[in-house]
Amino acid sequence: MEEFYEKLNQEIISKKSIIGVIGLGYVGLPIVESFVKSGFQTIGFDIDDEKIKKLIQNESYITDFTDKDIEKINEFNRFYPTNKFDKISQCDVLIICVPTPLKEDKLTPDLTFLNNSLKSIGENIRRGTLVVLESTTYPFTTSEVVVPYLEKLGLKVGDDVFVAFSPERINPGVEKFKFSSTPKIVGGKTERCKQIATALYGCVIDKVVPVSKPEVAEMAKLLENTYRYINIALVNEIETFCSEMDIDIYEVIEAASTKPFGFEKFYPGPGVGGHCIPIDPFYYKWYANEKNFETLLIDAAFEINANRPKNVFNKAMMRMKGVKNSIITVLGVAYKKNINDLRESSAIELIEMLINNGYEVRFSDAFCNKILIKADGKSCEMLSVDFNEELLEKSGLIIIHTDHDYFNYELLNKYKEKIIDTRYALSKFENEDRLVYKDIVCKDKDVYFERQI
C-alpha cells in the first residue's frame, strides 16, 4: 500500500527507522557500524550466544574490529545485539547477511542459514518492512525463495513488504575498502522495492548502483568472484610452469603490470580460501548446470585450484628427500594475510597430508591460535607456536602458507634455502627496491620503461 511505502521512506530519510541486521560476522558487523554511526537505531541478531556476550562487553571476535572499535559503536547507545529473534517485530528494515556455504559435496548450495532466517522473519515481521538479502547466492534466490516465503504469509511484495537483493562486498583485512566507501549494487523486486532500498543505502554508502531486478544484482556478485577464481587459476597454472623453468613469477607479474591497460594483477598461492572466492563460482555452476548450461571454465579452474595444496605437498616431499630433520613448520594458516579466518583455508589440507605422511608438523599464526585437523583418521587440535629464530633453526623445512605482515621477512630470508614460499613473500622482500620502474625519455622515441638494478 502507498501508506506503507511513504511511511517507511520518510522514516529512512529522517533516520527514524530501526535497522535489524541478521548475522553479526565479517559482513554484519561493518553494516551495523555504518548504520549506527549514521544515526540509526540498530538491532543485531545472531544465534551465537558467545558473540552477543562479547559485543555487550566491548569485545571483538574478528580481526577487522578491535575491542576499542566495538566500544565506540556501543558508546552511541544505538546498537542492541541480541539472540532473541522476536525483536524482529521492532524493526522497519531487515538486512540478512548469514553464511551461504556449500554442502559437504562442495558443489551444492546450502541455504540452511537463509531459510532459518526467513522462518524467524516470518514469525515476527510487521507490514511495511523492507527485507534486504546481502548473502551471496545463485540467481533467482530472491525471487524464488525469499519472495514466495513472504507471500505465503499473506504479504504482497511491493505493497505490504519490500524486498531487495544487495550483495555484500566486504573485503576482510583490507582497510582501503570500507562498507561505506564501496559502491553498493541494489536490485529490488519491484520499482518501489528498488527505490526504498536505494534510499536506505544512500544514507550510509557513498555510491549506490540501482539495477533493474534482483537477478542482475545476484549475478553481478557471482561474476565478480568467478572472474577472480578463474584468473587465480590462470596465474596458478603459469606459476607451475615458471617454477619448473626457474622464472620468478612475481617478477613476471610485476613486469606485466607495467602495461597501463588490459591487465590486472593476480598472484599464485597454495589454494583458494575464504567465504567468497572458493564458494561463489559453484553457486553459479550449480544453477547453470541445473538449467543445462555447461561451465567449462569453472570446471577447468577447479581442477587447477583444488590441486594447489597437493602441489605444495609434492614440493615438500621433494625438498625433504635426504633431510634428516623431519620437522616441518607452516607459517600462517588463515586463508589470507592479517585476518583470523580459517574458512576453506588450504593450510588445513596441507598440514593433514604432511602429518599423515609421517612428518612432525608445527604451525605459527598469531591470528589463529588453534586449528582442528584429521590425523590418522582422528580429529585433533593443534596449537600455534611462537614465531622466532629458534623455530626456524629447528625446522627441516619451512612453508610460508600465509604471508602475514608481522612475520620478520628479513629473518626468514636468512633461511630461504629451506623455505617453500607459496606466496612469493620473499620475492617481494628481495625485489622491494630493485623492482622499480622509471620513465626514460629517449630522443625521437616514445617513453620506455627501464628496470632499476
UniProtKB/TrEMBL annotation:
<dbReference type="InterPro" id="IPR017476">
    <property type="entry name" value="UDP-Glc/GDP-Man"/>
</dbReference>
<dbReference type="InterPro" id="IPR014026">
    <property type="entry name" value="UDP-Glc/GDP-Man_DH_dimer"/>
</dbReference>
<dbReference type="InterPro" id="IPR008927">
    <property type="entry name" value="6-PGluconate_DH-like_C_sf"/>
</dbReference>
<dbReference type="Pfam" id="PF03720">
    <property type="entry name" value="UDPG_MGDP_dh_C"/>
</dbReference>
<dbReference type="GO" id="GO:0051287">
    <property type="term" value="F:NAD binding"/>
</dbReference>
<dbReference type="GO" id="GO:0000271">
    <property type="term" value="P:polysaccharide biosynthetic process"/>
</dbReference>
<comment type="similarity">
    <text>Belongs to the UDP-glucose/GDP-mannose dehydrogenase family.</text>
</comment>
<dbReference type="InterPro" id="IPR001732">
    <property type="entry name" value="UDP-Glc/GDP-Man_DH_N"/>
</dbReference>
<dbReference type="InterPro" id="IPR036291">
    <property type="entry name" value="NAD(P)-bd_dom_sf"/>
</dbReference>
<dbReference type="Pfam" id="PF00984">
    <property type="entry name" value="UDPG_MGDP_dh"/>
</dbReference>
<dbReference type="GO" id="GO:0016628">
    <property type="term" value="F:oxidoreductase activity, acting on the CH-CH group of donors, NAD or NADP as acceptor"/>
</dbReference>
<dbReference type="InterPro" id="IPR014027">
    <property type="entry name" value="UDP-Glc/GDP-Man_DH_C"/>
</dbReference>
<dbReference type="Pfam" id="PF03721">
    <property type="entry name" value="UDPG_MGDP_dh_N"/>
</dbReference>
<keyword id="KW-0520">NAD</keyword>
<protein>
    <submittedName>
        <fullName>Nucleotide sugar dehydrogenase</fullName>
    </submittedName>
</protein>
<dbReference type="InterPro" id="IPR036220">
    <property type="entry name" value="UDP-Glc/GDP-Man_DH_C_sf"/>
</dbReference>
<feature type="domain" description="UDP-glucose/GDP-mannose dehydrogenase C-terminal">
    <location>
        <begin position="329"/>
        <end position="428"/>
    </location>
</feature>
<keyword id="KW-0560">Oxidoreductase</keyword>
<dbReference type="GO" id="GO:0016616">
    <property type="term" value="F:oxidoreductase activity, acting on the CH-OH group of donors, NAD or NADP as acceptor"/>
</dbReference>
<dbReference type="InterPro" id="IPR028359">
    <property type="entry name" value="UDP_ManNAc/GlcNAc_DH"/>
</dbReference>
